[in-house]
Structures are given as structure tokens and as C-alpha cells.
Amino acid sequence: MTTHTEQKKVRADLLRIAGWVRDDSRVLDLGCGDGALLAHLQNRRGVTAVGVEKEDALVIACVNKGVRVIQQNLEDGLAMFDDGQFDTVVLSQTLQAVVNTEHILKEMGRVARYGVVSFPNFGHWTHGLSILNGRMPVTGQMPYEWYNTPNIHLCTLKDFEDLATRLGFRILERATFRDETEISLMPSLRSTLAVYHFETDRKPAS
Matching SUPFAM superfamilies, A to Z (predicted)? Predict the structure, then answer.
């Protein structure tokens, strides 16, 4: 069981993701950052974990946590992984920075039966207010100026749900957050981060 001390070290959205992952399963985390989620899953859920990350410092942080990590740019694809090699694949706060959004989602559906995606919610009410005032939004979830942002495909909750349906994904659960607080009332307007758990058409490996 996760201790209170450990919970404070892991972001609320990552703890929610961890709750969707089955014990002793195989998990791939794309853009795994410093490996916090995978380390938590390895230590507390007994998963077999693999991360993909391109930044040198973050790769080192993963290694220091005992997380197996492959250094690669996600834009190069997931050809190194076999069909159905994993049970769950995670793409946490990275989707909006990927050039070929549909391709990476399809590849997630190829390598795993279950997927988890999180992204900044561009539908938050303050973003609309910023645009009405003639400025692109700059917030805690999207802290960049328009000219130096890595975020190239911003979307709302409804935008992602429509794309997931078109790709044949079945959304199982959704969680929305503002900072560390989970939002249940009017999440499309009040949340800054959305997290989706979905099932693809990938059948379990025999």
C-alpha cells in the first residue's frame, strides 16, 4: 500500500494513472520524464516497466530510480516494440507536443490493449479570457510564451474524446485536475489537466 509520504512525492494525476494499472502488468511510459510514475509502479505494483525519454538529464534521473529507460525521440516512432508487447501504455503531458498526434495514438493502440493519455485542457475558462484580451494563454499548466512553446497541438476535452472515438478507442475513465485538486464540477471549463484511460482494439497477448 502506498504510504502518505510517498503519495506526497508523486503528483495527483500520476497517482490516478497508477490506480488504473493492474498489478504485475507490463507498462510502457512514453515521455516518462524523471521516471516518477514508473518507479512508483515498480515499487508498489510489481509492474514490468519501460520508459522512453529523449532528454539526457531525465534519462539519468530514471536510471538513478532503477527505471529501465530507452533514450529516443517519440517522433521516431515505436517500431522497436512488438504488437501487444505491453498491457498499458502511458503518454503523460506529452501529446500536445507531438507532431504526428494520430500516428502516436495508433502506435499506442498497436503495442498495448490499454492506454492512458493526459494533456493540458485548452478549454479552461482563463484561456478564453486571455484570447479575448488579445493574448495567448500563459498558465501554470502551459507556462510558455507563444514563440517558445513546445505545445503545438492544444485541445479541449471534447476534442480528444472525438479523436479517440474516431480511432476506435473506448474511453473507460476520465479524471480532471487543477494543480493537485481533482475537479468534478464543470471540468471542461474548470480543469487545467485532463487524464484519460481507454481501451484499444488490441487483444491480450496469448
Answer: S-adenosyl-L-methionine-dependent methyltransferases
User: Which cell is 94 given?
Assistant: 506529452
To the nearest whole number, what is the mean pLDDT of the chain?
Answer: 87
Give the count of domains, the chain: 1
Please check whether residue 154 is in contact with residue 96, taking contact to mean a CB–CB distance below 8 angstroms: yes
Q: What integer pLDDT is reported at residue 140 of this predicted model?
A: 63
Average the pLDDT over each of 69-73, 100-104, 114-118, 125-129 and give the range with the smallest value. 125-129
Residue 204 lies in a domain: no
**163, 168, 172, 176 alpha-carbon torsion, rounded to 10°:** -10
Banded model confidence at residue 9, pLDDT cuts 50, 70, 90: confident
pLDDT of residue 7: 45
Q: What is the dihedral of CA 198, 78, 32, 139, to 10 degrees?
A: -70
51: number of Cβ within 10 Å: 26
CATH code for the domain in which residue 67 is found: 3.40.50.150
